[in-house]
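Entry 12.
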Amino acid sequence: MHPPPSRCSNSRHDGKRERFQHQQRKDQNQNHVSSLRLPIQKHEREILYLLERHQVVIIIGQTGCGKTTQICQYLRKAKWTIPGEKMVCVTQPRRASAQTVAMRVCEEIFASNSSSSSQRCCLGGTVGVSVRFETMKSSETEILFCTDGSLLRELLEDPLLQKYSAVMVDEAHERSLNTDVLLGLLKKVTRKRKELRVIVSSATIDAEAFREFFRAETEELELEEDEEEEEKEKKKKGNDDGKFSSSYDQPAILSVEGRRQHPVRTFYSEEPVANYIKASAECAMNIVRLDLRNNPGDILIFLTGEKEVEECADILEEHLLSERLDREVLVCPFYAGLNNAKQARAFRAPPRNARKIIIATNIAETSVTIEGVSYVVDCGFVKIKAFDCERNSETLQVVRASSSSAKQRAGRAGRVRPGTCFRLYPEKYFASLDKTSAPEIIRADIAGTILQLKALGIDNIAHFDWFEAPPVKHVVVALELLHALGAIDDDAKLTSVVGAKLAELPLEPKLGKALLAGCDYGCANEMLTICSYFSIENTCFLPARGGTTSRNLLDEAKANFAAREGDGITSLNIQRGYAWNDRNRRGFCEENYLNFRTVQRVQSVRAQLKKLLTQRLDCMLIDNNRSNDEDKEKKLESILRAICAGFFSNAATLAPYGGGGSDDGAAKYLTIRNKRTVYVHQSSILYGVSSGLPQVVVYQTAEVNNENKEYIRNVSSVGDLRWFKDVAGHYYTF
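Predicted 3D structure (C-alpha cells):
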C-alpha cells in the first residue's frame, strides 16, 4: 500500500489553488470596477429608450468607451434575454476579439453577482462564444459573442434569427466582407421580423451612411403594408406589428464620448527602415533601457502577422538575455492564432517594477483594449488578403496602413497617461497615406459569399441590397469558379448535388469541393485530415529558433514526414504519427518541431467536419488499412485526384531547367492558364527540393512579397494532365 499524501503536500497544492483563485477574483473585481467608470455607463437609459422606439440604433463611440462589453449587459438586465428562449448576439470581425471580449463580459457578470456559481458564468453558460469550428453555448446562454461569419452560417438554418431579440454588429468601421454582407441580410430580416432590434456600433463609422442604408423607403413601406393586409390570419394569431410607431423604421444615432485621451507625442524615423521587425525590436529595447520610475508604462508593437510577431518576440528575448536589466520585462505576443491563456497575458497587469512588451497584429487597433500602454511602436504596414482577377486567386499582401489606422494605433498610448508613438517611417510618408483602408468587399474573393447568398435563396446577386456592391469583375470570376466546381448550373442556380452541400461546409468553396470529391473517390477519411490541415492558416511546424543548429533540426523533423507528392500527403504523415503517439502527444510535437496547439486545433476541426459529413451530408467514411502495395498506390492516386478536383483552377507546371532559378532556393513553376511565374513558399514541404520535383502541381493559396514575387502554399502533385479533363474539362483547353 502506498502511504497517503502528506498534509504539507496537500496544503502546498491548496495554497497554489487559493493564490490562483485569489488572483482570478482580483482580476474580475478590477474588471468590474473599471466597467463602472466607462463613458457608456451614463448612456444606459438612453440606449434602452432608443431601442424601444427604433428598430435600428447606430452607436458611435471611441475605442475604450465600453460599448462592446456593456450594451449587451444592459439588454440582459432590461430582460431582453430569456435563458433557453431569447439571446442577444454581438458580432466581431475577428475570432480572437470575439473570444477575448466574451471572457471579459463573463468575468464582469460573475464579479457583479457574487451569489451566482462560477459555473454559470463560465464561457458556455450565461455568456457564450461561437467562432468557426468552435462553439461554446448552452440552454443557459443569454449573451452570445460570435464572428460575423459564424452568424452568416447560422442564417442558413434560421433565416429570421428567431432565437435573438437583438443583434449588435460591432466594429462595423472595419468593413470586413462578412460584416457588409451581414448588414444587407439584417436589413432584409428586419422587414420580416419587426420585433428584432439591430445595433450597429463602431469607433469611426460614417453614421449617416449607415442611417441611409437602413432607412425605410416610402415605396418599401407601402409594399410591406399591402403584404400585412393580405396576412390577416397571422395578425389574429398574435402578430403585433401595429404597436410600432411610424418612427420605428427610421434608424436613430447615438454618439458616446470616449475616455479622456492624454496627449501623445509622435516621432518618425528619418529614413525608411530596411527591416521593420528588427527595427521594432530595437526601438522597444531603447524604451526598456529608460528608467521605469520616470518613464512608466507598457510598450505595444504593431506588426503585420503571426510570423512577424513571433520573430520579433525571439529577437527581444535574445536581447533581454544578453543584457542585465534591473527590472523584469515580459514579452507578450498577441494574435488570433494564440491560445486563450497566452492571449490573457497581454491583458494582465505586470508585476511591480516590471514592464510589459505586447507584440500584436492589427487586432489590437480597435477590437480589444489593452490597459497600461504608454508607448506604441508602429511599423506602418498591415497584411491583407486581396483577390487578383488575373491570378484568379486570393493573395496575402503587405501594404501601407491607412492614416486612420495609424491614428488608432497612436491613440493606444494615451489612455492612462501622456504617451509616445514611434512610427518607423518618415513623416512625409504619413501625408501620402490613404485616409481609410479599402473595404474588404472591394478586394476580396467573393465566391464563398455568393454561394452562401444563393443557399439563402438570393439568386439575383445584382439585386441584393449590398451596403457597397463588389466589383462586377469579381462577381463574374466568382460565378465562373462556382460553375466550374459544379456548385451552380448554367442558369446560375444552386445545384443540389454539389452546391447545397458546399454551402453547408464551413470551408472555402475550393477546399469544400476537394472534401466532397474525397467522398466520391473513396478517400473521405484522408481528405478530412488534409482539408483540416489546409483550413488552418498557420503552418503546423514551429519556426526555427537559435540559428543554424535549430534550422537543421527543423529540417530533419520535416524530413521525417516529407512526401514527394507535396503538402497534402505530408499532412497525412503528420496525422498518422500524432495518432500513434496517443500517450504523449505533446512530447511527440515537441520532438518534431510541431506546434502542439495548432495540431490540436486540427483535430477539433476534423471532428466537426466529420460530424457534418456523416450526419448532414450522408457521406460514408471507410477505414481501409490494407497493406497491399497496389491498394496503397490506388488510394494515393484517389487522394491526389480529390485534391485536384478542388484546386484545379490553381494549377502549374514545372518551369524549364528543373524549376531552378530563384535566389532563395524556391522551385519555379508556370501557371497553366496564363503562364505566370510562381515559386514554392518556404512553408511548403517542397521548398528547397532540388530534384524529383512534381512536373504538375495544384496549390491552395498564393502570397505576394514586396518584390512582387508570387509564392504558392499547400502544394500537391498532379499525376497526369489528363486528370484536369476529368475534373475540369470545361475549364482548360488542352
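Annotation: The two ends are 77 Å apart (CA to CA). Residues 178 and 207 are 19 Å apart (CA to CA).
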